[in-house]
Amino acid sequence: MKVATAAYPLDWFEDWSAYEDKQRAWVAEAAGAGADLLVFPEYGAMELASLGGGNVAGDVTGSIRAVSERVEAMNGLHARLAAEFGVHILGGSAPVEVGGRVVNRAHLFAPSGAAGHQDKQIMTRFERDDWGVEGGGPLRVFDTALGKLGILICYDSEFPLLARTLAEAGAEILLVPSCTEALEGYWRVRIGAMARALECQCVSVMASLVGDQPRIYAVEENTGMGGVFGPPDRGFPPSGVLAEGELNRPGWTYAEIDPAAIADVRADGHVLNMTHWTEQAERLPHIETIALA
């Protein structure tokens, strides 16, 4: 299978058709390059706030409501594009109002018309303190024609037990849509994505928001690039980097992923991180403190 992961810039739209044209162009480009799976970044849907006008887009609560109200239409568009181009699409995540709470939700669409979503599990300080976004529903594994996929939205990739839970449930590929303001934020998520690929002997696919959009609250500045990572073991590059884009340069980054290589390295790699994970627990109760002063 071939994956396309986005370094995606936010735009300002005067009407819905302009947004629709942009989505179609991005999907058509990746599909035309032979991609089977397209990954858009965390908060990629925030550009929909522009349709509410400047005062709404720049407001902490107005921006959330403007996007949340348009998520259903966005999902319909992505479902149609997935079917038309014969691809799987992880759409840009959005703040969604659910039962009086706001969650950070990403939707996955199959060309068959099937769809599902994953909510972010652990919120950053900004999401908690400034934006009021909360952790949503449970972790999910998506059993697709391309294999079993898990989704760790940005900060979630920095927590090993989340990825381990997905891997134990069968996930072979972890999708990591991200939104990071500064370079250090990008590297935190990238290091997390690479570490999870190492620990779980799987492939992680990272997408990023890029560029500035000062008129939209919470996504004024964005840093990152696309990347696809695997375990540094046989069947994969020594660095673990299958592909990476160019920092802050918009566009798709492509990589070929062989699910058989994931199964092979888990069964008979030079090391067996996935198998040996449980051996950590038996070592932990025996910690000793040695005074050398």
Automatic annotation (TrEMBL):
Pfam families: CN_hydrolase (PF00795). Keywords: Hydrolase. One of its GO terms (molecular function) is hydrolase activity. PROSITE patterns: CN_HYDROLASE. The keyword Ribosomal protein does not apply. CDD domains: nitrilase_Rim1_like. This is Predicted amidohydrolase.
